[in-house]
Amino acid sequence: MDFQDFTIPAYRKLLKSVKDGWDFVTALDSRKPGRICFWRHDVDFSLERAYRLAEIETEQGVVSTYFINLHSRFYNPLESESSALIHEILKMGHSIGLHFDPSFYTVSPDGRWRPNSALEHERNILSTLFCTNVDAFSVHNPGTTDFLRLDVDELGGMVNVYGPYFKNNFVYCSDSNGFWQDRRLEDVLKLRQHTKLHILTHPGWWSEFPLSPRERVKQSIETRARRTMELYDQTLRQFGRKNIG
Ligand SMILES: [Zn+2]
Which of 148, 163, 222, 240 is 20 to 30 A from 138 in CA distance terms? Predict the structure, then answer.
């Protein structure tokens, strides 16, 4: 498998090709006529990588939407460092959406959560924390849930990017699991025949140098673990406490 596709230089090239033939839009503008591209990132593994991609997009003069998961096991958007990264992404002019993980609610023992209330609840957390509108949601692992219906265009006051409107009007290209699912994005862009593009990337898959998908995830996990350890050591130093171990 060719890992060259998922490097920062390759990312830059893809953005340039889209910019040459399509206008970048948010989910709210997805009904705009003409050649448009809704480029979204589902942030599954790394907000640091999300920030890096946001920088490159800004350098290219384009905007995209970063979908944030409140229940990720790989990052916590409520931590101050992570939250600062999201604020920075917003400052660059990008949008955020909700990356909704229904599995969190299906394990809830009291069954009090309904899809609408769960979505609204998470939308409120994100929009209050980051002082911004959250207009769209994407479902994490959409094929594995029956908690909510995906055959509607709107739910919880947000655009469902897996809804029928997107499905029926956009050509979809995704890097899920660290490789192009159907066709390579580069090949889709070369054809230039599609008017409406829906591109899904996961920032964790995009690295400075070619790496296998597992290596890329491993790197994200190890960087975070190292930082947490450093924070522990630094806190003890700061308060003049003994660091035993
Ligand atoms: Zn996801």
Answer: 222
Instruction: Kindly provide the residue ranges of all beta strands, DSSP E only, lying in 69-126, ordered along the sequence.
Output: 95-100
- The pair of structure tokens assigned to 127 is 């929009």
What does R_g of the chain's alpha carbons equal in angstroms?
Answer: 19
Type of residue numbered 141: N
Domain assignments of the chain as residue spans, ordered by start:
3-212
For residue 66, the CA-to-ligand 1 centroid distance in Å is 11
What's the sign of the alpha-carbon dihedral 64, 220, 123, 106? Answer: positive
- The Å distance, Cα 192 to ligand 1 centre, comes to 28
Centroid of ligand 1 to alpha carbon of 243 (angstroms): 38
Measure 140 CA to ligand 1 centroid, in angstroms.
Answer: 4
Give 229 Cα–ligand 1 centroid separation in angstroms: 27
Q: How does pLDDT run across 21-70, given as a tens digit for each residue?
A: 999 999 999 999 999 999 999 999 999 999 999 999 999 999 999 999 99
State the distance from the centre of ligand 1 to the C-alpha of 231, rounded, in angstroms.
28
Tell me what the pLDDT averaged over the chain comes to.
Answer: 92
Q: What is the pLDDT of residue 82?
A: 95
Say which residues have a Cβ less than 8 Å from residue 85's Cβ, sequence separation at least 6.
47, 48, 50, 51
pLDDT digits (tens, 9 = 90+) for 186-221: 998 998 889 999 999 999 888 888 888 899 899 889
Pairing of β 158-160 and β 154-155: antiparallel
For the entire predicted model, the pTM comes to 0.94
Q: What spacing in Å lies between the alpha carbon of 177 and ligand 1's midpoint?
A: 10
What pLDDT shows up at residue 48?
93
Looking at domain 3-212, what is its CATH homologous superfamily?
A: Glycoside hydrolase/deacetylase (3.20.20.370)
